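Q: Hand in one record:
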Amino acid sequence: MSEPETQPSNSSDNEIQQIPAQYKGWRLSTKLINGKLWLRWQHPQENFARFGCPINQDDIASTINHGRFLIDLAIKLEEETAKQRLKNQ
């Protein structure tokens, strides 16, 4: 999932929007976007969080699990792509 463009926020929003963490080398963070809290994840070889999804405040655990699933899927796709490249050389 990609995220919408961010709007400038006030300083009190900045205090709650960034909570960095890691999962399998990917950087996880939260950000307040247009008044809604988003979970964002960044590929280890990139310098910005390209992917994200809104956090379901009624079930935060399912949002985190969904993000982890998508990271695991991206890792698997990268591995399969690398295998195919080697096979085609």
About this structure: The first helix runs from residue 11 to 17. Strands lie at 21-23, 26-33, 36-42, 51-54. The two ends are 32 Å apart (CA to CA). The first strand starts at residue 21 and ends at 23.
